Backbone:
C-alpha cells in the first residue's frame, strides 16, 4: 500500500515538472503584436534615445526609442531571466550607442545581483499595423 502511494506521489511530482516552455511577458507580446516588421535593420541605437527595453521572451527584445519609434532585437541566445518582473536590464557602452553584439546584463532589482547576460542582436524597425478596413 505504501508503495502505491509512493508511486502516485512520484507521478504527481512528474506532472508538475516544468514543460520547458519559454517564459513570455504577455504585455510585451501584446505590444509587439501592434506592430509589423519593416525589414529596415540597423546595428546600433543611440542610448540617449532608448526609453524602454522590454523582453517579450528570452530571445526577443522590444525597444522603444524616443516617443513613437519601436525596434525589435532578436537575440542569438537566450537571455535568462529577462522576462522576470523582478529584473532589469543594465549595459554600459564606450560610445553613445548600444550596438549588435554588445552585452546586456539581467540584474535582480531587489538584491542587485546578476541573473544572466546576453549579446544584443540587430535592431529591426517596427511600424504600427494598419487598422483593418471597415
Residues:
Amino acid at each position: 500500500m505504501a508503495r502505491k502511494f509512493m508511486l502516485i506521489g512520484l507521478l504527481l511530482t512528474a506532472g508538475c515538472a516544468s514543460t520547458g516552455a519559454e517564459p513570455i511577458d504577455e504585455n510585451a507580446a501584446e505590444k509587439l503584436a501592434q506592430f509589423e516588421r519593416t525589414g529596415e535593420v540597423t546595428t546600433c541605437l543611440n542610448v540617449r534615445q532608448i526609453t524602454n527595453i522590454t523582453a517579450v521572451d528570452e530571445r526577443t527584445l522590444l525597444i522603444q526609442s524616443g516617443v513613437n519609434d519601436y525596434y525589435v532585437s532578436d537575440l542569438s541566445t537566450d537571455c535568462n531571466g529577462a522576462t522576470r518582473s523582478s529584473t532589469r536590464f543594465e549595459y554600459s557602452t564606450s560610445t553613445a550607442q548600444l550596438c549588435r553584439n554588445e552585452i546586456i546584463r539581467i540584474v535582480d532589482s531587489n538584491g542587485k545581483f546578476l541573473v544572466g547576460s546576453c549579446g544584443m542582436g540587430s535592431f529591426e524597425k517596427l511600424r504600427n499595423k494598419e487598422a483593418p478596413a471597415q
User: Anything to note?
Assistant: The chain is about 15% helix and 40% strand. Residues 27 and 56 are 8 Å apart (CA to CA).
